[in-house]
Design brief:
Blueprint: E1 2-10, E2 15-23, E3 30-34, E4 39-43, E5 51-52, E6 58-63, H1 71-79
Parallel strand pairs: 1-5
Antiparallel strand pairs: 1-2, 2-3, 3-4, 4-6
C-alpha cells in the first residue's frame, strides 16, 4: 500500500488536521483517517493538500480502537 499524509481540516470551525492516507493501487479508492481518530474511511475522491474531510464521499468505513496515529498504523488497520 502506498501511503501519504496531507494537511487538511474538518468541521465547521475548519479545524486543522493531518489526514493519513493509503492507496492499494493508483486508480483505486483511498483509505484515510484524521490523525488521532479511530474512524477509517474509504473514498474515490482525490485527497490533496488542504482537503476538507467533511466534503469527501465515503464508500466504506470502520473503526480502529487505538486510533490512527501514523501511516504504518493505517496500513495495519486496513490489512487486519
Amino acid at each position: 500500500m502506498d501511503t501519504f499524509t496531507v494537511q487538511g481540516y474538518y468541521g465547521s470551525g475548519n479545524t486543522p488536521c493531518n489526514v493519513i492516507c493509503g492507496q492499494s493501487y493508483s486508480d483505486g479508492p483511498t483509505w484515510y483517517a484524521v490523525e488521532g481518530s479511530s474512524n477509517v474511511n474509504l473514498t474515490y475522491d482525490e485527497i490533496e493538500l488542504g482537503v476538507n474531510v467533511e466534503e469527501l464521499s465515503d464508500i466504506d468505513t470502520f473503526t480502529w480502537p487505538d486510533g490512527i496515529d501514523s501511516e504504518q498504523t493505517l496500513v495495519e488497520a486496513v490489512e487486519a
